[in-house]
Amino acid sequence: MNNYTNDNTSRRYKAHVSIFGTTQLHLRNPYIIAWWSAAFPGFGHMLLSKYLRGYALFIWEVVVNVNAHVNAAMIYSFQGNIDMAKEVLDTNWLLMYIPVYLFGIWDSYRTTVDMNKVYLLADREAHRFNVFSLGALEINYLDKRNPVLSVMWSLFIPGLGQLYIHRILTAIFVIIWLVVFYYYSHVQEAIGLLFLGKIKEATSVLKPEWLLFIPSHYGFATYDSYMNTVENNKLFEEELRSYLMENYQSKGFQILKGQKVK
User: Fold this and answer.
1) Which of 22, 117, 162, 225 is most deeply packed, by most CB within 10 A?
2) What is the chain's Cα-based Rg?
3) Which residues is 2 bridged to in the sheet?
4) E runs forming strands in the chain
């Protein structure tokens, strides 16, 4: 049940609230979105709420990266062992990796520029949208949340910040892949050994190829939760302002600039 049913009378809508989350258009920096796509293909599109494309690029990155041994080659190159880096790379997979990687960066930049234009048009139309959604499985509504709490929960476990602001699809996806990265990198096992003082054993059990995925995962989850918390708060204030003006403000009310109100 929604408090407003979309009648499709507007060409563009600024936001949509459903039981799965709040999707909205707002101004974004194309270079930042492209940077996240460069850091990990799929992240840029997920920031734009283009989930299907983002999930496809993310899964492609993991599968092809592991088979091409890109992360392993990066580790050897960081150590100055260039010959070993060349040897470990699988060129058959690498030739498929590069075009899709570049496409993810280009497409996220292009999409951001287009969506910024759409947002400006939707903001001028200022059409009403639902702000409350009640279903058998979930309930979602616009309200104000604390961005600091979003960051804090994301730093504990990526995905919790998204759950805090009700971005269910992103939260589930991030948490599932965090478990996959933890399992194959053996990072939890290494932390346990580290607490026991067994530093050499902790280092030996780690799988660096999978471990390198985790920092990007944490960074994305933290940035996504913070940015969307801030934007959701702005959307809440704009919607509340519009509602109060429409229902409680006198039609003849005018703000007199440069004059004091007695």
Assistant:
1) 225
2) 23
3) 133
4) 15-18, 21-24, 132-134, 139-141
**Residue 258: predicted pLDDT:** 65
DSSP 136: S
Q: Is the dihedral of CA 219, 221, 225, 231 positive or negative?
A: positive
Judged by DSSP in three states, 224 sits in helix
What is the H or E stretch that residue 132 is in?
strand 132-134
User: Which token pair is 122?
Assistant: 């939707």
Please answer whether residues 54 and 40 qualify as being in contact, where contact means their C-beta atoms are separated by less than 8 angstroms. Answer: no
Total number of residues shown for the chain:
262
What CA–CA distances, in Å, run from 249 to 56, 221, 235, 257? 48, 40, 20, 18
Q: Of the candidates 25, 232, 24, 224, which has an alpha carbon nearest to the alpha carbon of residue 142?
A: 232
> pTM for this structure?
0.90
> 30-60, pLDDT tens digit by residue?
999 999 999 999 999 999 999 999 999 999 9
Q: Give the burial class of 161: count Cβ atoms within 10 A of its Cβ; 0-12 exposed, 13-18 middle, 19 or more buried.
A: buried
The token pair that represents 245 in the structure block: 């003006």
Structure tokens at 239: 């919607």
> What residue type is assigned to position 237 of the chain?
E
CA distance 108 to 50: 10
Element (H, E) at 39: helix 30-39
